[in-house]
Write a structure and sequence with these properties.
- The chain is of the alpha+beta class.
- The strands form three sheets. An eight-stranded antiparallel β-sheet has the order 1-2-3-4-7-10-11-12. It has a two-stranded antiparallel ribbon with strand order 5-6.
- A hairpin with a 2-residue loop joins strand 3 and strand 4.
Length: about 240
């Protein structure tokens, strides 16, 4: 079963394999998408009645908003302030956390419903579980920032997540929280991690930190990092194996 909807202004899809109960599968997928739509409504900085907007106006944070802010604070500290959900003008922008966080919660909903083999694609950021075929992982393409029709590589992933942050579609939209200036040292950064919350935030951290963020991310939860610098050179790092 494959299902596609527009969420947060981007296409999101779920591809489920091997489910035994079609009705239960459809209910689980519907629940997963409902959770992502709910996150979109609650955390949009463009809606004056969203939780993020009300929090900016002085309302108390909900449990979920506090969780998102805690994640942001954690990675802000780890990155020395490079990652920030405060825009240069001081306004709150949780987009650097919420998409990966919401998609991971949706994937957890599918897992809790008993689905063991699926790929959830949130606008190019991906969570996978199981194997679509015995002995083969899910293929996740990493786009070449210089050519929308080409891939830098195709990763084979089982039970993990892949996220990319880049300037090739939205321009220089990621800023370095230490300076308030646009991050320009990298064109794109892709992170493989155990969950999409971590992968998504780390990819943004790498873009904000620039080339120094590649090895840094491999020390802070990334299983692998691929980045393209301003000159088009491919840079990579792998998580060190435990001693």
């Amino acid at each position: 079963m494959r299902h596609l909807e527009l969420v947060m202004g981007i296409p999101m899809s779920v591809d489920v394999r091997g489910a035994l109960d079609e009705q239960a599968e459809r209910a689980a997928v519907r629940d997963a998408f409902d959770r992502m739509h709910d996150a979109d409504r609650r955390f949009s900085r463009f809606q004056p009645d969203s939780e993020v907007s009300r929090y900016g106006d002085g309302d108390a944070a909900s449990t979920d908003l506090r969780e998102v802010l805690d994640i942001a604070a954690h990675f802000g500290d780890l990155s020395g302030g490079a990652f920030s959900v405060r825009r240069p003008d001081g306004s709150l922008d949780t987009d650097g956390v919420v998409k990966g966080w919401a998609a991971q919660r949706a994937a957890d909903t599918l897992t809790a419903a008993g689905l063991t083999t699926f790929c959830l694609n949130a606008g190019g950021d991906v969570v996978v579980r199981g194997e679509p075929e015995p002995g083969r992982g899910w293929n996740v393409g990493v786009r070449d920032p210089a050519d929308p029709q080409a891939f830098l590589t195709v990763l084979e992933v089982r039970d993990g997540a892949v996220a990319t942050s880049g300037t090739y579609e939205r321009g220089e939209h990621v800023w370095d929280g230490r300076t308030g200036l646009a991050a320009t040292g990298l064109r794109a950064a892709t992170v493989v991690a155990a969950d999409l919350t971590t992968a998504d935030v780390l990819a943004t951290c790498v873009l904000a930190l620039g080339p120094d963020g590649i090895a840094w991310a491999a020390q802070h939860g990334a299983a692998a990092v691929l980045a393209v610098d301003a000159d088009g050179e491919l840079l990579t790092a792998l998580q060190a194996a435990p001693a």
